[in-house]
Please model this.
Amino acid sequence: MNSLNTLPIESSSVHLRANILADKNTASKLLEVYKNNYGHNHASKITFAVLAIFKNHLENHMHKVREYNAAFQEISEQNTNIANDIAKVLIEYKKIIANLITKKVEFESTLKKTNSFRSHIGNSIPRVPKQEYSFSLGIQMQKILLMKGFYLY
Model:
């Protein structure tokens, strides 16, 4: 457990990119990583931490889209070149958001199909994680994933 503390937080998935959890087997792989590092009892807590990370990054990207939309509205009347640049950035953010939502749904769907999770947390995984699954748990989970070669950015 001490080796986890040596990995800097900045190297974790603070800057999440659209290719998060790209392949469909990731949930099963993550479950094995969690079991190996935390034991079965902690697996659902870490699952909720993953969902919390998704939710956090989606909210951050949505906030950026709102900011860029506001800037676009204000600038478009005065300078079309800058407005076009902002529009391009908006398109990229919207692509990232769409991809994040897709990956989140795939992640939840894979978890629901994983037999070992059925007995542990049931068939329905809440979309909004419970408050007690703390951010620090999410950071610990990200550090483990990095050590195991799962890059979430």
